[in-house]
Amino acid sequence: MITRKKITALLIILSVLTLISIISTYYAYQQPIYKTTILGTYQHDGTYDYIAQLKPNIIYNTTTLTPKDEGILYTNIVSCINITFTYAFTSNPEPTNLTVQHQVSVQLESPGRWAKNLTVIETQEILQLTDDLNFTIQVEPNEIARLKEKIDNETGISSVNYRLNIRPTIHITANTTASTIEDTFDPQLTVAFVQDPALGRYIAIWPLKTSIEKIIQTEQVLQSWVANLRIASIIFVIASASGLTIATGFYIKTKPKGKTIAKIIAPYKEIMAETTQKPPETNMIIEMKALEDLAKVADTLNKPILYLKEEKENTFYVVDGQTTYQYRITI
Asked: Quick one: pLDDT at residue 3?
């Protein structure tokens, strides 16, 4: 038999299961149903290196400086700077065919004042720029200073700080099993001629390394475990919520209605006696509409009300010879 105590325990279990199902559903819908899969990647690497040729000097007492050496490139002791550029392209999967086009542009600039784009002839004559992908260039501070002074004279501006902007533009076309790659890479190098009250006149060169990694192609892949989890969690919610609703209905139905039996019999306790015996078999059984009516009969007959408490039903009766007056109530 399903008792109220058992239904209460069932309600607690179903409430916990419903909460778990809601949490699992929330978790399932927080997960992306599609996962982005990278089919391939590629990378550009542009690397600059240099060797600065020095005039006879006391501060370093050496004839060359490289990026690995510690020391500032003071303009007054640098005769020329030989710069090399190396380009590398890598991809995964590897390209089956690779086409590379390149060009190098050089700009002399007085920041915030003027800028001049050097012609091909000027880059070859002044900088000895080679026409290779992995090119070399020679920067002579005196030559650059003379060109800067000519432009200053034309503009009427006195430039203390100026720079060379060296920009190779590399366009590649590569065929891979994942896709066709078409991209442009332009790793600019800046050679700045600086005059600083604290550091003096020096040459700064940056950046020596430029790398760019890109994705060739991506693919949206359905995550079946997420889809299955969403379906299962919804079924779990529906099942647990339905069970909770049904159990709640049973719980409400088993709730005692109206007054408790103790409150009902309280006014008649003095004329009532509890018994374990069922009403005797008599010739006549008269059903009363209310306990109050039975109490009136008991008072008239001057007999006690016998009270039989059973699991489902409470029976009150008065016996008068072969006549039984009774009232039954289920609580």
From this structure: 67
